[in-house]
Every structure is written in C-alpha cells, then in structure tokens.
Here is the input.
Amino acid sequence: MKSYPYARESEAVTAVIPPNDTTWHSQIIPLTTANIATKIEAIAAYTSQISTFFNGRVDLEKQIYDHATHSGGERLWQHKTNLASA
Here is the structure.
C-alpha cells in the first residue's frame, strides 16, 4: 500500500507500478472520520514526518483530511498473485 503523503506524487506509484502493468489491482478502502483521526495521530507520532512533509500540525491535519475525502479513502494495491491466495 502506498499511503499519503508518499502517494501524493503520481510518480511515486508509477515508479513502482508501471502504468500498463496488469498484474496489480487497486482498491479504495473507505475511511471514517475516526479512521482519519487515527491516521493523523499515527503520522504525528513521528515528528520527522511533520517537518518533512507538512508545515506543522494544522497542515498535517488538513492535508490528510483533504486527501482522504478527495480520494474516497486509502488506496490498497495488491499483486494479483497475492489476490489468488487471499
């Protein structure tokens, strides 16, 4: 899974999964408000994350909330060989 903030750059995904690669499947996992709050707290626990990707705690909260609501949740990528064994 490539989660935000790492996936905010489209090149981050295509660097790992070529655009025409059909061996990968993605699924959006919906996030509740509580899920988003938990994700924010988890990211905030690593202070290096805040200084690397965000302009403080308020920016962290805004970016994570905006991304989750815009994208519909968290995108989970699975290789098709793993789907067969699931």
